[in-house]
Write a structure and sequence with these properties.
Helix content: 40-55%
Number of strands: 25
Oligomer: single chain
Largest sheet: 8 strands, mixed
Strand content: 15-25%
Shape: elongated
Structural class: alpha/beta
Length: 843
């Protein structure tokens, strides 16, 4: 009998209880597998490693860099310059080809490292029970049916169905995006439960934050959740950026026009009786003059300058094309935790004695300003009592210093300590003055923590936990001045529900003098406590995020949130930062996405701005659907779960501080400060880069057209050759030397963010710029022809002198046109002359 379930059943392990899972895999929960059986299963299933695709040979990657229409044209121009003996031009073109190939080669080789980064997350060893004995083995030898032992700090080596737990909490952030460790239990959950809600499972590469556990290996290698992500990354083909698509289309147009025009010029020359050899040289020189061979190098320089400017604003670019792509983006799918928020829990509100206190604006005091609590205040101040409960029923540690604070422990626990410090209380001093007699640490099964303390002969018990659990321990509510009051549990629970609806994680505190006998080694659950208050915690928005999102929306970019967090929390943050304007806006969960057909999803993605409790597959589906709707999509992420979406988006943006290596390797841009504000800054630089590429293209096309038309028109008029091949090449060298390069250094337009993003199908030159190119080229050509006519016919100069006049006129026209190419929308007279010093030098 096969010990591995089929692919459909594999996804339902979380619906089975532990005993049933053990039976399905023919294992033994106490003794584990026999060594012989484990060896047989290893032969059947293979080692517990991710499949590694064969690395593409270097020569194949290198040759692929020359498969571009623009590169074909550039190579043809190089051959023509060699034939014409213009070896300087040949050298420049060869250098451009080498630079372009080198950059592309390095980027593609680095892009193959995404799956290799995943390999580093597999735990090297695992503690298993085999044949009734505990042993440590290489994790590659794990098989379905093995019994694995877990303890704090251990990286989970495979996907496990839990069989027993003791205060087990697991950090699953790299798979789910959860900002706090997940409490694990043994209960089965619904088949459609999100990954983050499968509390009876632990997954490969996640880390045990605290506690212990015993689990049954149910899937290994590529069948794990981590393995599925690796397969999705591997199956993703390299995507062309919008700029690459535009350049390919542009190259086809330019290639066809130049080839056709050169052929017509050659034929026209033969018809009017010109020498075949001379016309062959003229046609070749004319083609070289018209080919925008400077465009690849200027494109590379413009992108490189964009990379430098982005780096100054904390956006590290890993692939050059990403510079422009971000400027073209019209939809940004942002993660919540760590990107929009600070990735740290903080106490936002406290409800005590019927009043709601906002606390997230309080600052930490200087260390010398935090003081112990006066025991006399305990009977008269419910807020102080609540703060005290949060400090003493707590296993985290906080050290105040002149530079701020250092904390260790669960983020929620730390938040209670920081909140106490903000109210002028020194947590360390409090703990030193209140001796611990017994502790009931937090366990997911009990959902509360309690601490029995003694000070100066006075004994108290403090507790904090889920509101419903704390309320069950209480028979009264604390009020100011110690007055007696009854406990209205329903009203308090309603207040807790209202706080939760605002996206807060709500805990309750309680305490009372303790007089009963106590067994310190096994304290019982406290009862008869006084309810102190409700504490609402939140991962707060980052500074500047609200302004950045407003700026992105002003720039025509839509922001959507795609997170693994709960819907209520996601909606609250989305409303606070400005992603949604309506507090009643809908949020679609992963379970709801599963019920939406592929035909209906496009409309949902265009309408809904918040997607919560999503899996990696859900996030990928949203991204692909948004792209099919015609959007240029950027996606942020930091975990392994984000890697497929990062790689399939038009541009993937990973976190540099909190992000995993997997996410960074799958991305195009890495944020050095993990801040959404840096995305907004990088969008501006991306638009500046595209504008400069467009300016250069417009300049080269219009001047090329002006050069191109003078020869055939002169022939049709029966004039001698207006420019000889050497002059055509010289004009080409002047135009496509420093002048076009200078436009890559143009600073951004003042209103660069006031315009909507470019449509995905918008070409590098839109219709208006094509008409402007033809008009400018016609003016340049007509002016050159008129001056040649004046010199040859009116002034009766020699042909060499007339040709020199025509060449000078053409070069002067190009120099003046360089200035008018500095802006697509502004007059040259409104652009500061010294804003681009390199352009002055290039003139």
């Amino acid at each position: 009998m096969s010990t591995q379930l089929d692919d459909t059943a594999v996804t339902t392990w979380h619906t089975l209880d532990g005993a049933e899972a053990v039976e399905r895999l023919e294992s033994d929960a106490r003794r584990g597998l026999d060594p012989d059986d484990a060896a047989r299963r290893l032969d059947e299933h293979g080692p517990n490693v991710l499949r590694e695709a064969e690395r593409t040979p270097g020569w194949v990657t290198l040759l692929s860099q020359f498969q571009s229409p623009l590169i074909y044209i550039l190579m043809l121009a190089g051959l023509l310059t060699i034939v014409l003996g213009e070896y300087i031009d040949s050298g420049v073109i060869a250098a451009v080809l080498a630079l372009n190939a080198s950059i592309g080669f390095i980027q593609e080789r680095r892009a193959e490292d995404s799956v290799r980064a995943l390999m580093q997350l597999i735990s090297p060893t695992a503690n298993v029970v085999r044949g009734g004995r505990t042993r440590s083995i290489d994790s590659t030898e794990l098989v379905p049916g093995d019994i694995v032992l877990l303890e704090s700090g251990v990286r989970v080596p495979a996907d496990l169905r839990l069989l027993s737990t003791s205060s087990l909490r697991v950090d699953e952030s790299l798979l789910t995006g959860e900002s706090v460790p997940v409490d694990k239990s043994l209960s089965p959950v619904d088949e459609k439960a999100a990954l983050a809600d499968r509390t009876g499972m632990v997954f490969s590469a996640t880390v045990v934050a605290s506690g212990r556990g015993r689990g049954l290996v149910v899937t290994t290698a590529t069948d794990t959740e981590l393995g599925r992500i690796a397969e999705e990354i591997r199956s993703t083909e390299a995507l062309e950026s919008p700029l690459q698509v535009r350049m390919r289309s542009f190259s086809h147009i330019i290639g066809a026009v130049i080839a056709g025009s050169a052929a017509v010029t050659f034929a026209l020359g033969l018809v009017i009786g010109e020498d075949v050899g001379e016309m062959l040289l003229v046609s070749a020189a004319l083609a070289v003059a018209a080919i925008p061979e400077g465009l690849p190098v200027v494109l590379t320089v413009a992108l490189a300058l964009g990379v430098r400017r982005m780096a100054r604003r904390n956006a590290i670019v890993r692939r050059l094309a990403a510079v422009e792509t971000l400027g073209s983006t019209n939809l940004i799918g942002s993660d919540k935790t760590g990107t929009l928020t600070e990735n740290r829990m903080t106490v936002s509100q406290i409800w005590v004695d019927g009043d709601l206190h906002d606390t997230d604006e309080l600052d930490l005091p200087e260390p010398h300003e935090a003081e112990p609590i006066d025991p006399e205040s305990l009977d008269s101040d419910p807020l102080t009592l609540s703060l005290l409960a949060g400090v003493l029923a707590n296993e985290a540690h906080l050290e105040l210093s002149e530079d701020g604070h250092e904390a260790e422990g669960d983020p929620t626990e730390v938040a209670f300590l920081v909140n106490a410090a903000r109210h002028g209380i020194d947590p360390t001093a409090i703990r030193e003055s209140w001796t611990s007699v017994a502790e009931l640490p937090f366990e997911s099964e009990h959902r509360y923590a309690a601490s029995f303390r003694e000070r100066d002969g006075e004994r108290w018990v403090f507790a904090k936990g889920a509101p419903e659990r704390i309320l069950a321990m209480c028979d009264r509510r604390a009020v100011a001045d110690g007055a007696e009051t009854t406990l209205d549990a329903d009203a308090i629970q309603a207040e807790a529900d209202a706080m939760a609806a605002r996206g807060l994680r709500v805990l309750a505190t309680a305490g009372a003098p303790w007089t009963d006998e106590l067994d310190p080694s096994d304290p019982s659950e406290p009862t008869g406590l006084e309810f102190l208050g409700l504490v609402g915690l939140l991962d707060p928005p980052r500074a500047g995020v609200i302004e950045a999102i407003h700026g992105c929306r002003q720039a025509g970019q839509r922001i959507i949130m795609i997170t693994g967090d709960h819907a209520a929390t996601a909606l609250a943050i989305a409303h606070d930062v400005g992603i949604v304007d309506d507090p009643d806006a809908p949020a679609i969960t992963g379970a709801e996405l599963d019920e939406i057909s592929d035909d209906d999803l496009p409309e949902v993605v265009e309408r809904v701005n918040v997607f919560a409790r999503v899996s990696p597959q859900h996030k990928l589906r949203i991204v692909l659907c948004a792209k099919e709707n015609g959007n240029v999509v950027a996606v942020t992420g930091d975990g392994v779960n984000d890697a497929p979406a990062l790689k399939n988006a038009d541009i993937g943006i990973a976190m540099g501080k909190a992000g995993t290596d997997v996410a960074r390797e799958a991305s195009d841009i890495v944020l050095a400060d993990d801040n959404f504000v840096s995305i907004h800054a990088a969008v501006e630089e991306g638009r500046v880069t595209f504008d400069n590429v467009r300016k250069v293209t417009f300049f080269l096309v219009s001047t090329g057209f002006g050069t191109f038309i003078i020869i055939p028109i002169g022939m049709l008029l029966g004039w001698p050759l207006i420019l000889v091949p050497a002059q055509l090449l010289w004009a080409n060298l002047v135009t496509k030397g420093l002048q076009d390069l200078a436009l890559a250094f143009e600073p951004g337009e003042p209103d660069v963010l006031d315009h909507p993003p470019r449509a995905r199908k918008e070409p590098i030159l839109n219709r208006l710029l094509w008409w402007r190119s033809l008009l400018v080229g016609a003016v340049m050509g007509a002016g050159t022809l008129w001056l040649f006519h004046w010199a040859w016919f009116d002034q009766e100069m020699s042909i060499e002198q007339a040709q020199a006049v025509a060449l000078s006129a053409l070069v002067v026209f190009q120099a003046f046109h360089l200035g008018s190419s500095r802006s697509e929308r502004r007059s040259i007279f409104r652009i500061p002359l010294l804003s681009n010093r390199f352009l002055l030098f290039a003139q």
